[in-house]
Amino acid sequence: MTPKSSLLNYILISLKGLCLDCQQGNITDGRFRLKEYCQACGSKVERNSGDSWAFLIFIDRSVFLFPLIVALFFRLNLKVFIVSAVIMTICLTLSTSKRLSLSIAIERWLSSKFKFEG
Question: Which stretches within 1-118 are classed as H helix?
């Protein structure tokens, strides 16, 4: 991927489960994991292991935790709150590989934009 690529391009490619370098190889390994290397081009999927944790936490908090906090703030019915929490937990679990690839895409875009090299 060229350094001039936009964040949106990185996000779209990652949500498709494709390699951010060659855009052809599938980087997902089932529903809950990512592959270590792209099978098409051989590049490492997560270049600097552990760099994308902040983005993963942000994605988790903004998509799943904040709505529950808002529901508590507005004193949503307890049954509705519990059902919402269960549904959000299931969605959080089922979207693990997408969230991981999304956090890697954000980290990779930032490193290409600001020339962070490990």
Answer: 7-15, 53-60, 66-73, 78-94, 96-114
4: its two tokens: 């001039």
- Answer whether 0.90 is exceeded by the pTM: no
Tell me the C-alpha distance between 84 and 5, whole Å: 37
d(CA 58, CA 54): 6
pLDDT digits (tens, 9 = 90+) for 76-96: 788 887 888 888 888 888 888
Distance (Å, rounded) from C-alpha 76 to C-alpha 58?
24
What pLDDT, in 10s, does the model give residues 57-76? 777 777 777 877 887 788 87
Amino acid at position 98, single letter = K
How far apart are the C-alpha atoms of 55 and 4, rounded to whole Å?
21
pLDDT at 4: 54
